[in-house]
């Protein structure tokens, strides 16, 4: 797996980022990519920070902690952005095309990388579902807090 | 899934001009989690608003009155004549785009219609069509479009995705305030019975009993008494909390969540401890038992009606002036509208702190002082004994709630207090605080359960900055001075920045305040053991 230069990885990450950004409406794409201040553009910068990390892991150790953290950030975002599970995760598969076009790797190496892409996508799918469920949980928690003191009072009286 | 990859540099340039041609192509889709439920007929009837009926935004037929279009256009005409600002905001935008990327909903959703400039364009295009010569003649060529039911639905969708936070206006070279435009559109929608339950039900309750939950006077008294008992358990000091006491010097008004919700309640305990300690001659009112004013989110008339009870109660109880608690939009109403709506309150006196003698000249006309101004003044005059170590289990940051920050300029007082009651305080990045603060994403009546997904989008920019200070300094408490913040930021943080709690400024004041005759404090006002380091709680 050696031989992927940092410049190549960077090029792949940039193309992958562009793919991810294409899942957003046209007038917003440029902003998501160009505005580098993470506080002015939290969504775009999450993509910009996390995608190269995933590329790094894909060609490296596939460290579970690092992959998990990166995917978590991406899926936490996409779970509230109007995407279906398929749309939220779909852009990850685009990496396969990029790998084929951007690397001169042999068939066997490519197959191994593509397996890793599948792994990423499955993990992302799980995370997406987890965040969707969490949304309902935090919603219920909020409803409880809203009258928590009244309930305490009534239960003491009762 | 898109198959062709575009390099970033190939991405299209943004145009802030309205999309060419007819906009009717894509009617909005009401997807679960991204809109508020419609107001039930009961609340609409109670408030004597038009067209009470049961309906939902997902219905094909919104059961509008047959002449809805005439009603809206007549309403627009009337408001264009009545509010100079409205006409100005319709006319003067040059579509420079300075506001475009400043809205938290845009940043969280990337939906172009959440750019303030395009949000406003949703009504501007209709304004052009019916109220300008070019629009009447050239129609879509002049960026004008017909008012149709789809347009109305789009208004409902996008003007209830604006929290009226006014962040965008800070960046507009012309001072165009999209929040004011949102208020106008919501008023217009109300004329044909298009409104949300989350706004109208609390408004109806407030009109009837004086607060959002519809708690009656005896319930209010029970709640306050309950807090007095709790405070005694925690501090060993029995305080008095008078209600409807005629002849008191000061009327104290809080948002109702302070006495029934968590974490608001700990702030209420903080106020009670503070007032006892300085021997304040004050009273609550069981009718002015709500600082919040959901009229601000529906119409000027409703805002006036709900606001009136504060002065009415001040008059009835014969107080000299009014003190207000940690509430967000209450302060916007007071600062920007109260005087013209229900003032001048000539029967009240210019507020003077009975403890320090400080004259609150800034409140000369409304006669209402913010609790943070009041407390900062007490601390400044060394009138309080504070042990800030009692907040050592918190590493604190401060969220400028939109209304106190942008609508009344209350920026320094809360920070002054926090730095004296807590030892560990860290600011979030400069472009996310003070005038540039990011909204919680749930204000202006959007904080409903069913709107959760939209709220999480809107809460991202705020929570993102919180996450930064959490990771950098170990911040584990976000303080704020708004009841909606306290209700909804814990939710946003649980999602985006887990491990950070939300609390009030006066909760920390209450923790630090050394009271005469108190027992040895072993817990904070939440009943959490003291001395437990931030790390321990964090773990
Ligand atoms: S900043 Fe002001 S003038 Fe510029 S597009 Fe926004 S509203 Fe229009
Ligand atoms: S939510 Fe705030 S920033 Fe966004 S359009 Fe409304 S007032 Fe402007």
Give a written overview of the molecule.
The complex is a heterodimer of chains A (158) and B (539). Chain A has 158 residues and is mainly α. Chain A has one domain. Chain A is 77% helix and 0% strand. Chain A is built from eight helices and no strands. In chain A, helix 1 (6-21) packs antiparallel against helix 6 (94-102), helix 2 packs across helix 3 and helix 3 runs antiparallel to helix 4 (64-78). Chain A is elongated and about 75 Å long. Chain A starts with 5 loop residues before the first helix and ends with a helix. The model of chain A has no long low-confidence stretch (mean pLDDT 93). Chain B has 539 residues and is mainly alpha-helical. Chain B folds into two domains: 20-195, no CATH class; 203-537, no CATH class. Helix content of chain B is 45%, strand content 4%. Chain B has 22 helices and seven strands. Chain B has a four-stranded parallel beta sheet. Chain B has a three-stranded parallel beta sheet with strand order 5-6-7, with helices on both faces. Chain B is globular, with a radius of gyration of 24 Å. Chain B starts with 40 loop residues before the first helix and ends with a helix. Mean pLDDT of chain B is 92; it is low at 1-14, 20-24 and 533-539. The site of one iron/sulfur cluster (SF4) has 16 residues of chain B, from helix 5, helix 8 and helix 9.
